[in-house]
Amino acid sequence: MNVAIGIDLGGTSIKGALVNDQGECLYEVTCPTEAEQKGEVILSHIDQLCQELIAQSPSASIQIIGLGTPGIVDPKQGGVISGAHNLPGWVGTPFLFHLQDTFNCPAIAHNDVTIMTYGEFQAGAAQGATNAVCITLGTGIGGGFIFNQTIYEGSTGYAGEVGHMIIEPNGRLCTCGSYGCWEAYASATALVKQAHNQGWPENSDCSAKIIFEHAANGNSLAQELVASYIEHLSTGVANLINICNPDVFVIGGGVSHAGQQLFEPLLATVQPKTMAFAFKSCHIRPATLGNKAGVIGAALFALHSLP
Amino acid sequence: MNVAIGIDLGGTSIKGALVNDQGECLYEVTCPTEAEQKGEVILSHIDQLCQELIAQSPSASIQIIGLGTPGIVDPKQGGVISGAHNLPGWVGTPFLFHLQDTFNCPAIAHNDVTIMTYGEFQAGAAQGATNAVCITLGTGIGGGFIFNQTIYEGSTGYAGEVGHMIIEPNGRLCTCGSYGCWEAYASATALVKQAHNQGWPENSDCSAKIIFEHAANGNSLAQELVASYIEHLSTGVANLINICNPDVFVIGGGVSHAGQQLFEPLLATVQPKTMAFAFKSCHIRPATLGNKAGVIGAALFALHSLP
């Protein structure tokens, strides 16, 4: 049995797993990232996770380590060369060389959204797709593409910045400095921000999950927020369908757990905004790997890179 | 020397050319399409053009006929199976079988925008690109993609419907029935329509070309129209750069002949709407094959399909 270590480096936590070539997680570990620390500190956490996973490895023969990280990876430099704004100390850390030396096995890394997309493509909601668009609704909106059954990452690795697609000219200010970006309307963060702007009770908990729950229970403010959220979400989804004509459109991130409460009105709102033939041939569905997409994608990407 | 016939079937005219494998047009012919006629009539025009071209062929050995057509081609059915709304009689006409029989050589066809994109990729503004986005500003806005040095056409051949990307929610009604589509703002047709809406003198000629000329000559209404046009154009261009991270972005169609009057303010407007790294690595430039992109693309696509 081929086994790899998959590592998913996030801004809050680092997840690690032993994953077999069927995309099954055999053992999982996690620890805080300490994103504000130097790269060496973050790397020492990854070392620790790898050691724990190796100790649990059934055959003691890990074939390769795969890692998904924010930013753009340059294998020649052994690390992230740009992006990864939430992990400033991580840029320039030659973690690939370090992991190869320390664990005496090959190591490979790629952008985290691309890795998650690869996970869903290989073992999740986009399995069997020829062309898939995967988006994650979280702090922002990340996007990844599988085109012609291969990762599409653009000319310098930055394809999929779908969150900064402008859907409302001169609209809300985005964290990127531009106005009217999709993620300023349709990320989980945007939904919560909008709730506060529209008078969500100050002493009451507020998250995307809670807003959806309140909407399901008949709260009119929550229903209004959800309807407006889905309207904006649908514009970006429709645009990507018209542009890319995918056969599968995967939506991940916490918001996607709302299930039919999200997907039923979303599909009804996307349809009139898309070309009929493109809509008809596209399956819009929730991600199925959840927060394991990163570790599974990293491990499978690594295993498939082996000669 | 390898020579092919390239045919570019449009709603108004059919263009044909003898093209060598360097993408050079050796001889060109054209005739009206008679778009409202039956498929057989349109096909008889194409026959006539092919005969004229064969009569001019230096070696009398045409290797293959390539054809760009509106709509989606199914080679198994020998013709267009859907789309091509401007040529209703053409859908279902098995023109590929007919051309093969009549001229005793292979014939191949593909969607016209894809063919033009391929022409610019092989012999025009996108030569040498790894990933290119090509758009045409005309009656609508067509889009074609080269991803990983290969035509990307999506799951059912409909990728590149960039004209129906929504950039203004609840905005202008588009011919597709949706609201706020990019082509309702940034096609040549939209510019002319807007001119009439904003009081362009009724007894005065009006075209995109004329509006740009008047703007260059200091006419304030024309300047206002052009500025607003470029503002909207830039939103879609920026979105496609953020989504696709191409190294080359080609803009064709009549409007692109405005040259620096278009491209200088366009680049200045696109920049703040794009992620810095994606903008920096993308060359935005006018198409160079002009109205020959279709015939050159069709011929080269055909020649490159030969074993």
Helix vs. strand class of chain A? alpha/beta
The average pLDDT value of chain A, as a whole number, equals 95
State the assembly state of the protein chains: homodimer
End-to-end separation of chain A: 16 Å
Strand content of chain A: 15-25%
Number of helices of chain A: 10
Largest binding interface between chains: A-B, 48 and 48 residues
Helical content of chain A stands at 25-40%
**Most strands sheet of chain A:** 5 strands, mixed
Gyration radius of chain A (Cα, Å) is: 20 Å
Shape of chain A: globular
Structure, explained:
The structure is a homodimer of 307-residue chains. The first copy, chain A, starts with a strand and ends with a helix. Chain A has helices at residues 39-56, 95-103, 112-123, 183-186, 188-197, 208-216, 220-244, 260-270, 276-280, 293-305, and strands spanning 3-9, 13-20, 25-32, 64-69, 72-74, 79-82, 107-111, 132-137, 141-147, 150-152, 248-252, 283-286. Chain A contains ten helices and twelve strands. With 307 residues, chain A is α/β, with parallel strands linked by helices. The first copy, chain A, has a five-stranded mixed beta sheet, with helices on both faces. In chain A, strands 10-9-8-11-12 form a five-stranded mixed beta sheet, sandwiched between helices. In chain A, strands 5-6 form a two-stranded antiparallel ribbon. Chains A and B meet through α7 of A and α7 of B.
